[in-house]
Structure to design on (468 residues):
């Protein structure tokens, strides 16, 4: 990556996330053609690339905690966030994004449960290193399961709902579905 | 007292009034000229050019307004810390050995706290942006240390050292008791703690960005603020202390007033400004 005269690496390319691109659908075409809003061009749902920032669209259908969780997960998965990188504090992220602290804390908690991030007391929250063998095996199982459910034509929300019901021990219909597919 | 008054007779009330009225008129002229909309807009474009950042038309007005408010705040705050020094230097009645023995320790103890307070009040600017339904934030935590290069940190440490040196010289010159040396040290530590808390307050202020360009501007302004606060907190106290030291020294040594004491701070100011040019693009690391 080229560096500036002061040895500072330029930022990652600015590619807008799904929620932003949707909200920019109503922008003035004249501005687009003139290049004034060039950062927004060629951004469709199919070409979403993890970016160097988090974005929350309060008008979007997806719950805010899920937006935070999924974007962080994508950033870690794609290598934009590397092991030992420090995440913003819950309070800072919540105020930046205009969310309740509990919402951000929930997203962090879910990522921590699957071992993607770790909290080190008062030092803050960091991207975790390599997964433990137990968690790695769990992640492989989850990936297989997710793929099979996609093959059945299920969407993300449906998959998550079924899986959440199973985990919470109240998923009668979910159990039969999983048994059928396995 | 008699000798001092003979060497440097106290100015009349009319002269003092003329100085303050003159300052007011000059300040009003400067404010009128520099706060024109066109001037703020061209400053915004110049800042964008120097920082390598986009300035879309929908942000132009907001950025210009923010820069103008920043400048007006500086113009308002600057006389506040200059006035006590002006009063000290113009009031011939208080320029005696007794005055300096009594008041110098109190004044010099206040300079570190004063420096931090002045610096912080200079960077308090109203929110420049109105958050929309989309909000952006960084994936990583942005740390205060990212805002300074190694050389800049050394320059800040040198400022603290200069404050200690200037204070020690003045305290020694005014034959202050050990009590005042301890109080001065305590004031320095307290100023350091307050500075740290204020810096983190600025860093933790929420960004109100709704698109990536706004987030970049937010970073640029945030880094400018923490850097201004640090430079002011580190270098205003030694400058103010130096002025006090020089005034006291002139009076106690019965020297004729000399403008030589201005050159030292001037050279140091230029050096500090050159050092702090290094990190003007550090906001990109956020």
């Amino acid at each position: 990556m080229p560096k500036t005269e002061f040895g500072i690496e330029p930022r990652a390319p600015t590619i807008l996330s799904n929620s932003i691109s949707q909200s920019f659908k109503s922008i003035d075409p004249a501005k687009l053609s003139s290049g004034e809003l060039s950062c927004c061009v060629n951004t469709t749902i199919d070409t979403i690339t993890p970016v160097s920032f988090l974005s929350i669209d309060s008008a979007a259908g997806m719950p805010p905690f899920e937006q935070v969780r999924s974007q962080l997960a994508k950033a870690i998965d794609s290598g934009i966030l590397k092991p030992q990188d420090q995440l913003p504090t819950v309070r800072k992220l919540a105020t930046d994004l205009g969310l309740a602290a509990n919402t951000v804390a929930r997203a962090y908690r879910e990522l921590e449960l699957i071992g993607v991030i770790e909290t080190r007391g008062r030092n803050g929250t960091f991207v975790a290193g390599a997964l433990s063998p137990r968690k790695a095996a769990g992640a492989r199982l989850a990936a297989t399961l997710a793929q099979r459910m996609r093959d059945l034509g299920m969407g993300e929300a449906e998959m998550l709902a079924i899986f959440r019901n199973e985990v919470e021990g109240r998923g009668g219909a979910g159990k039969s579905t999983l048994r059928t597919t396995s | 007292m008699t000798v001092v008054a003979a060497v440097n007779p106290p100015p009349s009330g009319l002269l003092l009034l003329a100085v303050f009225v003159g300052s007011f008129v000059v300040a009003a002229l400067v404010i009128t000229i520099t706060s024109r909309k066109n001037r703020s807009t061209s400053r915004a474009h110049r800042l964008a050019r120097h920082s390598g950042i986009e300035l879309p038309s929908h942000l132009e007005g907001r950025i210009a307004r923010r820069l103008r408010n920043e400048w007006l705040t500086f113009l308002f705050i600057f006389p506040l810390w200059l006035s006590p020094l002006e009063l000290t230097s113009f009031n011939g009645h208080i320029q005696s050995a007794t005055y300096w023995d009594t008041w110098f320790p109190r004044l010099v103890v206040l300079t570190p706290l004063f420096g931090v307070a002045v610096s912080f009040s200079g960077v308090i600017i109203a929110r420049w942006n109105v958050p929309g339904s989309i909000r952006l934030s960084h994936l990583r935590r942005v740390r205060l240390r990212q805002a300074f290069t190694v050389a800049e940190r050394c320059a800040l440490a040198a400022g603290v050292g200069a404050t200690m040196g200037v204070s020690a010289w003045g305290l020694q010159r005014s034959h202050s008791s050990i009590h005042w040396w301890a109080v001065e040290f305590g004031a320095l530590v307290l100023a350091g703690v307050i500075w740290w808390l204020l810096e983190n307050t600025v860093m933790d202020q929420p960004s109100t960005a709704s698109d990536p360009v706004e987030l970049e501007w937010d970073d640029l302004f945030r880094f400018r603020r923490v850097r201004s606060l640090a430079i002011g907190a580190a270098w205003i106290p030694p400058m103010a202390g130096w002025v006090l030291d020089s005034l006291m020294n002139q009076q106690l040594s019965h020297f004729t007033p000399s403008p030589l004491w201005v050159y030292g701070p001037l050279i140091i100011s230029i050096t500090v400004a050159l050092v702090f040019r290094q990190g003007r693009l550090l906001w990109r690391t956020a």
Observations:
- Chain B touches chain A at residues 52, 54, 56-57, 131, 133-143, 149, 204, 206-207, 211-213, 215-216, 278-279, 281-282, 284-285 (CB under 8 Å).
